[in-house]
Hints:
The chain is 19% helix and 26% strand. The protein is of the alpha+beta class. It folds into 3 domains: 61 residues, RNA-binding S4 domain (Structural Genomics Hypothetical 15.5 Kd Protein In mrcA-pckA Intergenic Region, Chain A); 89 residues, Alpha-Beta Plaits, CATH 3.30.70; 90 residues, Alpha-Beta Plaits. It binds uracil (URA).
Amino acid sequence: MTRDERQNRPAAQEERIVPMRLQRFLARAGAASRRGSENLMTAGRVRVNGVVVTELGAKVDPLVDEVTLDGVPVRLAERPVYVMLNKPKGYLTTMSDPQGRHCVAELAPVAQHPGLFPVGRLDKDTTGLLLFTTDGTLAQNLLHPSRHVSKRYVALVDGVVRDRELEPLRRGIELDDGPCQPARTRLLNESEAADVCPYGIPGGKTCVEVIIHEGRKNQVKRMLGKIGHPVLRLHRSTFGPLKLCDVEQGSWRYLNDEETTALLKAGSL
Ligand code: URA
């Protein structure tokens, strides 16, 4: 990651890159407590760029200076990264594909952030919000059924759907792999359906909102298929507390501080 890229990251994801006091740097890097770090310095065990530093006011630039403790390099750990991708259709939710098909990894900043991976999956033809993170524990928590992280989908389906036809989804429809939890679902009007029908809802088709808390394979398509309305287009607009906004299709952005805090909360409840 370049210095410029680091500076564009929001504070919640950013280690302080400005010069900092050496004892603070040591404490942040986990070498010792702040007081313990001062003791390491006054004992002459800490070097900056090869020179012993005992002065407690000394500062270091973590991006530039090489700090060692007893000759062993000390570095700040990278903080986890959280990225929102607006997935276009035609991309597999995978980091690589042996058949050379397009993968979401091509669209996310994986070179800057080794270990970045998608949280859950969207089908190749599904568009919308796909979260990436380097934080494996958070990802595991967000995907665990007990967390009940909600996801909102907008589907364009074949046929004219009456509201009462959505009742089985609201009750919890039975699929091949077992019953679904009750979903929140409603019919959408033209202005609410822009994500899947930017030029209006075609005749003989309907737009439906489906909010689920599970993440089974092809779940929304199978739910709507089961009531006789196959999905023609599918878009995810929310994932837990995150809403897809301020990111063009095919682009990504870092979560801002507020989003990061809300996401960590959703993953820790
Ligand atoms: N449900 C589906 O059927 N497909 C997706 O991509 C996501 C949810």
